[in-house]
Every structure is written in structure tokens, then in C-alpha cells.
Automatic annotation (TrEMBL):
CDD domains: EAL (cd01948), GGDEF (cd01949). Residues 473-727 form the EAL domain. Gene3D superfamilies: 3.30.70.270, EAL domain. This is Diguanylate cyclase (GGDEF) domain-containing protein.
């Protein structure tokens, strides 16, 4: 739209300029024509005046000749006629008048006939002028000396001692004008001469331009005025034009079209420029956004997203820059690693949101500590590390650690919860690590592991024994990694019995690590190490595949009523891919989801049950059944069971161990059984080791149980034989797996 508007404006401006230019050029052209006509008229005027002057001059010469002659005028007339007739065709006749202007004689030159008069009939002023001429030639109207009213008479006074008379040469005005104009007029001009508004001569063939294009001038002759009007013929007028009238509009149209094309090109270029400008601005915005993202990524790469303090990468960069300088000038630096005691239990009990907020508050407290640290970083889930230069003694380092313990100790108020936390700290000096950043962090980690053995508020300064323990832990992790890859983490199955029918109703899958020496390690010995590494994902995937594959074989063997139970830890339950892993493997091995029981500890169950779209809701949506391993009933557990009722509640081994001798534990177990019956929840006992415990359970209608007294965990290849002879072994001999 803007382009069309510009083209219309350009066309309008071009039209206006064309008209203006045409008018100006036409005005200039007409001015030049008028100037040229005036110049040509002036030339004609000069020639007419020249002819009259030459005529007067001839009269003066003739007068001088007559003055010096002694002959009578009549004798001189033939001679004068011959002299004048050859050069002045306009002289009609010569008349001689006496002193009183009476007729004396006449000589005919070019006139048609002689004119007989008595005297010259001039008015008194004219007669007086002639009488006073004193030998001066005088040009006057011919009057009665000619038959034509506009003719002129050139009087030559002859006044000497012997003679007094006048010689009048009568001039045909029309002939004079004709001969002069014909001889001197420029080709293409036309002339009209008037005297007293009466036309006395016309040299014209076309009067078309007479009124519009004419030039006038006046010549005074013998007390008379001749008005000359000069104008061109149409052909002459067209030749006199400086500029062709058609050229200007055509040129204007051409220029207008040219400028319209130019404006169109300019607009197109402007549009391209605008597009390029917009693209450039967009590119600049993208570059700016990319720079911001890169800065943000650079910031995030060295800062913890949760607490906004520097992360492990930033810490390593700082230490790698500072430690060599300290080594050169023999300086000292202490690193203190802080770990929140039992942070996992806080997360499980109150939820991850509370745990995350606790870490944010803790980072804020460390930053506002009275001691100004040279560097603060979050290097792990619940681990922080502070660096202080200039600390040289164990006492100074311990004082700093005590200060950190004191700032962690006050309760945290988070979402109406009073959260009490404590921290364990590992201390290491730069010189003990040979001023190497990686060694220093390993030393603080080793000292922290030793400090955590105190359970709460542990503070340990690194020494060589800690390094050996750390090395042992690292060696164990390496062996675990190899065991997972080599599938040496086995699955054993412990039967779950119906105490009345003494039949096996289900199998609980338990992990066992077969070490290089053939010994089996229980999950509590290695699961925490696996959870701290990326091994938890492949381990969980392998566990599900092996259990469901084994269970498929037992279903194919005819044990369709058999259920399978799998324990999941907090880290396994927190895996985002867990629901999809379950769904995929159930479909792959064609196992009914309702036959699979997912067993979790009570504290994990309580922390996840309140989440509407949490992992428990997703597991129930798949169709699997939830089992809770409980140690008792409290308000939190009961509320969780209202929000997300489990299918099966297990009485844990810790609670069942002293039953029936411990009355408190017996009361708690009895309460759990009654609560399950009232809520329609199945109940099962774990860790049955005596007949008295079986009797206790049967008396209270707790019909499902498992434990070493009934049967020990066995490898998968022994399960089928055990299913064929389901009687409990009732063997008190310690079992060696």
C-alpha cells in the first residue's frame, strides 16, 4: 500500500512539474520570440528611416545643384528628372513653385498623369515653415500636389541672388514603403502601415497571428505619424520557437515514468533494507539471547541451581588457580566439607520440597557466617565445602568447624514445620594434599566419611588412615560396577506362606552380591554405594528383567496363583523412568500387573502417598499392588493409608523379633493386624523365627508370613523344587547362602 501511495505521489509531482516546466519553457519561448520580433522590427524601422534619410540627402544634393545653376528651373527639370528617376522610383513628379508657392512648371517621372494646380495649399504654419526654410530641405505632406492623400513632398528651396523658387519632389508614400519594405523586410514577416488609423500600406498574406503576435513602432514623417505593425507568418512563427511544444510533455512523461521506476526501485530497496534491518535486529536479538543463554549456561555450569552458590566445577577451578600460588609462597589453606546428618530421612519424612528448602536455608546461613570464607560451594546433594586461607593449625580448623556446627544447629521454620538438622564435617589441609585440588577433595571426603560414623555432629581432620578407608570404599565401588556389568548381582527368592494351608502364596525377590571369593553380600552392605552412583539405573532394569523372566517360567509351570514381590529403595522409587520400565517389562514378559507387588519402607510410603500425581499413583495406574513394610502405626502413616491405601501391610522384622515376649511390640503388632482387617488391607509378618510367633499370628488371623523359620531365600533354580514340596523347613540351623 505504501509503495502505491509513493508512486501516486511521484506521478502527481511529475505531472505538476511537467506542467510548470511546460509553462515556464513556453513563457521563455514566447519571450525569445517577442525579443526576436522586436529586433527584426527595429531593423525594419532603421531601414525605413534610412530610406527617408537617403531621400532627404538626395534632395539636398539636387538642391545644391540647382542653386549653382544659372538656368531657369524649366530648363533644369529634365536633367533633374534623369538624376532622380534612376535611384528613387517613389518620386512621381517634380513640381516647381515660385516664392509665393504658386505653380510654375512640372516634370512627370513615374506618375500616371500631370497635376495642374495654381499653388501649394498648405496651411499657414506649413507655408511659414517653407518660407523660413532658408535653403534647408523640408519634407511635408503633398496635399494638392498629389492625387493620393498620403503622399509626401520634398521641398528644395532655391534661394540665391538671382532666383527665388521651390522645387517639390512628390513622393508616392506607398511606393516608398513598398520598395523599402520589400527590400529590407526579413522573410516570413508581414507588415501593415497606418496613418491616422487609416491603412496606407499592407504587406501581408495571413492575418492569423496579427492580433496575438505583433510588434509596433512609429515613424514621424512630415508632421505625420506612420504606425508600423509587424507580425510573422505561421511558418515563420513555428521556426522561431526555441523549444518544441511537444518535447516538454513527452520529456516530462519520460522523467515522471523514470522517477516512478526510480521511486519503485527505491521503495523495493527500502523494503529490502527494512527486511534486512528486521532480520538484523532479530539476529542481534538472537545473538543477544544466545549470549545471555551462554552466560546463563556459563553461570549454571559453575553454580548450583538450587542454592545459587558455586558448584563443584567452580570449586575445582578456584582450587586449581589458588593452590599452585600457595605452594610457591608456602601458604596454607583448609577445606571443610559439611554434610547434613540423615538428610535422606528428612527428605523421606517431610518430602523433597522441604529438603530442598532446607538446603537453600543452610546455604544462606553458611554465606552469613561470622567467618568470612574465601570460597563456598555445594559439591553434592546435601554436601557443602568451604575454603579458608591462612588457617595453619588443627585448633583453628576445629574452631571454624564448631562455628559451622553452631549455625546449622538452630531449627529451621519451613512451611509450618520445625526442622532440626545437624552436620558432620571433614577437614583437610592443602599441604597434606600436596596442593593438588583432586587430592584435597578426596581428603575432605575421607575425613567426612569418618566423621559420619559418629552419627551426629561428627568433626574429623584428615589423616592417612582415612585415605585407606576411602580407597577401600572406592575399590568396593569399582568391584560393584564390574559385578553389575557381569550380572553377578543375583536374585534370591524367599517364600511367603499361608500359615493355615502351609502353601507358598508368593515370593519376595532379594538382591545378593556374589563377590570374587564366592561369598554373598546382603543389600544393606552395598545398596547405599550403588545409590550414590549411576549404577542404580542399570541395576534396577536388570532386577526387573530377571525377576519377571523367572516369574514367567513359574507361571508357565502352572503356578498361576503365585505372586511376586520386589523391594524398591528410595533412590529406585525416585527414578523418573521407573513407571515406564515396569510397564515395558510387564508387557515384554507377559506378566499380569496385579501379580506384582512393589514393597517400600514405611517412611518412603508416607512421603510419597500425599502426592496426587506422584510415583505411587503412577504405579497403581499400571495395576501393580503396593506393599508397605511398617514398624507401627502413627498419625502420619494412618493419614497416608487414607490417601493411598496399600494392598498389603507387612509387620517388619524389627517389630516381630521379640514377640510374644515383648508386650509393647506385641500390642503394636496386634494393633496393626486389627487396623488392616478393619481397612480391608491384607497383612503379612516378616522375620518369623519361632513357633511362638506363628501361634501369635494365627491367633490374630494374620495368615501370611515369611522368615527363616519357614524358609530361607533360595536361588531361582531351587524355587520350583521348593514349590513342589511347600512344607516349611522349620530348620533352626543357621543358613549359609
Amino acid at each position: 500500500m505504501k509503495q502505491w501511495r509513493s508512486l501516486i505521489i511521484t506521478a502527481a509531482v511529475g505531472l505538476v512539474l511537467t506542467i510548470a516546466a511546460a509553462l515556464l519553457l513556453e513563457q521563455y519561448d514566447h519571450k525569445r520570440i517577442a525579443e526576436r520580433m522586436r529586433a527584426d522590427a527595429q531593423s525594419l524601422e532603421g531601414n525605413v528611416r534610412g530610406s527617408l534619410i537617403r531621400l532627404l540627402y538626395a534632395g539636398e544634393i539636387a538642391g545644391e545643384l540647382l542653386k549653382v545653376s544659372d538656368n531657369e528651373p524649366a530648363q533644369l527639370l529634365p536633367q533633374l528628372r534623369r538624376a532622380v528617376n534612376s535611384f528613387y522610383q517613389s518620386v512621381q513628379h517634380i513640381t516647381v513653385l515660385d516664392q509665393q508657392l504658386n505653380f510654375v512648371d512640372q516634370e512627370l517621372l513615374n506618375g500616371p498623369e500631370e497635376i495642374i494646380i495654381e499653388s501649394y495649399q498648405g496651411n499657414p504654419e506649413q507655408r511659414l515653415e517653407l518660407q523660413q526654410s532658408n535653403n534647408t530641405t523640408v519634407l511635408m505632406p503633398a496635399l494638392n500636389l498629389s492625387l493620393k492623400p498620403h503622399d509626401l513632398a520634398l521641398f528644395l528651396p532655391i534661394m540665391n541672388v538671382d532666383q527665388h523658387y521651390y522645387v517639390a519632389m512628390v513622393i508616392d508614400a506607398q511606393e516608398l514603403l513598398k520598395s523599402t519594405i520589400h527590400h529590407h523586410i526579413i522573410e516570413g514577416y508581414q507588415v501593415e502601415v497606418k496613418q491616422n488609423n487609416e491603412t496606407i500600406y499592407t504587406f501581408a498574406g495571413n492575418s492569423e497571428l496579427k492580433n496575438e503576435w505583433n510588434t509596433e513602432f512609429t515613424i514621424r514623417v512630415a508632421d505625420q505619424q506612420w504606425q508600423f505593425m509587424v507580425w510573422p507568418t505561421p511558418l515563420k512563427f513555428s521556426e522561431m520557437h526555441v523549444v518544441n511544444s511537444y518535447i516538454v510533455p513527452l520529456l516530462g512523461m519520460f522523467m515522471t515514468g523514470f522517477f516512478m521506476v526510480l521511486v519503485s526501485r527505491i521503495k523495493l530497496q527500502q523494503q529490502r533494507y527494512d527486511r534486512l534491518k528486521l532480520n538484523n535486529e532479530e539476529l542481534n536479538r538472537q545473538l543477544q539471547k544466545r549470549d545471555e543463554i551462554e552466560k546463563q549456561l556459563a553461570y549454571l555450569s559453575e553454580h548450583d541451581a538450587l542454592t545459587e552458590v558455586p558448584n563443584r566445577n567452580a570449586l575445582l577451578r578456584y582450587l586449581q588457580e589458588r593452590l599452585p600460588e600457595l605452594a610457591i609462597r608456602q601458604g596454607q589453606l583448609v577445606a571443610i566439607q559439611l554434610n547434613v546428618d540423615h538428610f535422606k530421612e528428612i527428605n523421606n519424612a517431610l518430602g523433597h520440597k522441604i529438603g530442598d528448602e532446607l538446603l537453600r536455608r543452610l546455604a544462606h546461613r553458611i554465606q552469613r557466617c561470622p567467618i568470612t570464607f574465601d570460597f563456598i560451594a555445594r559439591i553434592g546433594g546435601d554436601e557443602f565445602l568451604v575454603v579458608k586461607e591462612g588457617v595453619t593449625t588443627d585448633q583453628q580448623a576445629t574452631e571454624i568447624a564448631d562455628q559451622l556446627v553452631r549455625i546449622v544447629k538452630p531449627e529451621f521454620y519451613i512451611n509450618s514445620h520445625e526442622v532440626y538438622a545437624s552436620a558432620s564435617l571433614g577437614i583437610a589441609f592443602a599441604n597434606d594434599a600436596d596442593f593438588d585440588a583432586d587430592n584435597l577433595l578426596r581428603h575432605t571426603d575421607a575425613a567426612l566419611n569418618q566423621a559420619k560414623k559418629s552419627d551426629y555432629h561428627g568433626i574429623t581432620i584428615y589423616n592417612r588412615t582415612h585415605q585407606s578407608e576411602l580407597s577401600k570404599r572406592q575399590f568396593l565401588l569399582e568391584q560393584l560396577h564390574k559385578a553389575v556389568e557381569a550380572h553377578r548381582v543375583e536374585v534370591h527368592y524367599q517364600p511367603i506362606f499361608d500359615l493355615r494351608s502351609k502353601h507358598v502364596t508368593g515370593l519376595e525377590a532379594l538382591m545378593r552380591w556374589r563377590q570374587d571369593d564366592g561369598e554373598l553380600a546382603l543389600p544393606e552392605e552395598f545398596l547405599s554405594l550403588i545409590e550414590d552412583t549411576g549404577l542404580i539405573v542399570p541395576l534396577t532394569d536388570n532386577l526387573l528383567k530377571r525377576v519377571l523372566n523367572d516369574y514367567r517360567e513359574w507361571l508357565a509351570a502352572g503356578y498361576s496363583q503365585l505372586t511376586i514381590h520386589i523391594n524398591l529403595s528410595g533412590k529406585q522409587l525416585a527414578l523418573p523412568e521407573l513407571p515406564e520400565l515396569l510397564r515395558t517389562n510387564l508387557r515384554r514378559y507377559n506378566v499380569p500387573p496385579e501379580n506384582l507387588y512393589i514393597e517400600i519402607r514405611e517412611e518412603l510410603y508416607c512421603s510419597h502417598a500425599c502426592q496426587e500425581d506422584g510415583v505411587l499413583a503412577k504405579l497403581r495406574a499400571i495395576g501393580v499392588k503396593l506393599t508397605v513394610d511398617g514398624t507401627g502405626l502413627n498419625f502420619i502413616t494412618m493419614k497416608a493409608m487414607q490417601l493411598c491405601p496399600p494392598y498389603l501391610l507387612k509387620i517388619s522384622q524389627a517389630l516381630l523379633s521379640d514377640i510374644p515376649h515383648n508386650k509393647v511390640q506385641a500390642l503394636i503388632a496386634d494393633t496393626m493386624i486389627k487396623f488392616a482387617h478393619e481397612r480391608g488391607i491384607h497383612i503379612c509378618a516378616v522375620g518369623v523365627e519361632t513357633q511362638q510367633q506363628i501361634d501369635f499370628l494365627l491367633q490374630r488371623d494374620c495368615l501370611l508370613a515369611q522368615g527363616y523359620f519357614l524358609a530361607r531365600p533360595v536361588p531361582a533354580e531351587q524355587v520350583k523344587g521348593m514349590l513342589e514340596q511347600p512344607e516349611p523347613t522349620n530348620n533352626d540351623t543357621p543358613f549359609q547362602e
